[in-house]
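Input sequence (325 aa), recorded before submission:
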Amino acid sequence: MAQMTMVQAINNALKTELQNDENVLLFGEDVGVNGGVFRVTEGLQKEFGEDRVFDTPLAESGIGGLALGLTVEGYRPVMEIQFFGFVFEVMDSVAGQIARHRFRSGNSKVAPVTIRAPFGGGVHTPELHADNLEGLMAQSPGLKVVIPSGPYDAKGLLIESIRSNDPIVYLEHMKLYRSFREEVPEEEYTIEIGKANVKREGSDITLIAYGAMVQEALKAAEDLEKDGYSAEVIDLRTVQPLDIETLVASTEKTGRVVVIQEAQRQAGVGAQVAAELSERAILSLEAPIARVAAADTIYPFTQAEGVWLPNKKDIVKQAKKTLEF
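Predicted structure, token format:
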């Protein structure tokens, strides 16, 4: 085991798959010589060469088109969108072409594309860089959407994503890149896509989150424990597909649920989770399913993001309200 940040864990996963499969190619804006904006791909071009790890022009649509074309030739491309707020520039390739490739070919062709991108707030990025657009991806049939909450999951989920024959949108929250370390095996391992993780056992209320909000939920659970409440924390890990079985089991155990997301409240992943649980576990609920989310506005400028972003205080406040219902 080694202590790794999420940046190191992702780099290690990419290195592992570049070593394991010569058909894995890594490309995007500045991923080669510079090692990416956050140095996630640092050293990989030097080790594996410019034919396998290479820079592209500043053209997201071209990156997506290249990825799809490479799959036709038998490659397993790992494409990077430098910041996920720029996914609109490549939306046709991602949702209109890559996501539909298996369907339109009658299951005779696959699209093993991994679409990596940093996203998320709390690090004072310029406009369009922090936007949470995972809900848009989760609503696009044919795509799976993976969002790790820490280094251990980041490595196992990325290796599994690269080996998958389905296109995976793999989102890396910028605030988590270097905020803490975890023990991560240096050897290869995978984590099943579509399987949630119970990060903390509890009996009174279930807190469901993903990405950076998992860390806020864990902090909230600690505060709730001081007041005599036992909170279970579930990390979705993948927001498409959802692990409904784990979510229902926790709901049946605690009877109370708060769903947490950093994204705007409207039409988000949290709404889908709440709807599924309302349909499947309504008789187990002792209170309405609650949501903690950002306001339904465009992501604010950096001066206001601390007010706009959900945090542990918001989670504790809503959890107590649900517990006292």
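Checked by second reader. The longest strand covers residues 257-264.
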